Input
Amino acid sequence: MSWVGLLRSGDWMLVILGLCICAASFPWAWRAGVAEKAIVKRGGEVFSELDLARNRRIEVPGPLGMTTVVVDQRRVRVAADPGPRQYCVRQGWLTRPGEIAICAPNQVSVEIQGRQRTYDSLAY
Output
């Protein structure tokens, strides 16, 4: 650790300033915003756009049967699906923009969107 002795007070201030900027950038860089609507797709095409401010329940027909989507208190979930493994039902409540539940066997998906488009590691 002989190099630490070579740092002067200005160097330490620069290091601390850099760390503060990095720490402050985390919330800014990964903010998703406020969830505003849910996009329900059937077979890859938009079936319905649901405003999250209004509680409701819709039935989405698919090849295997009806998928039930519920909006309650600015969150959305797949309540029932005829698929064999129930992965989209187990996904639970979706609350943040970018979250998605996919019922692949029934070709139905529900995605939360906000004002800004969010990016994940796959889209980046």
Q: What stands out?
A: Strands lie at 35-42, 45-51, 56-61, 66-72, 75-80, 100-103, 108-114. The radius of gyration is 22 Å.
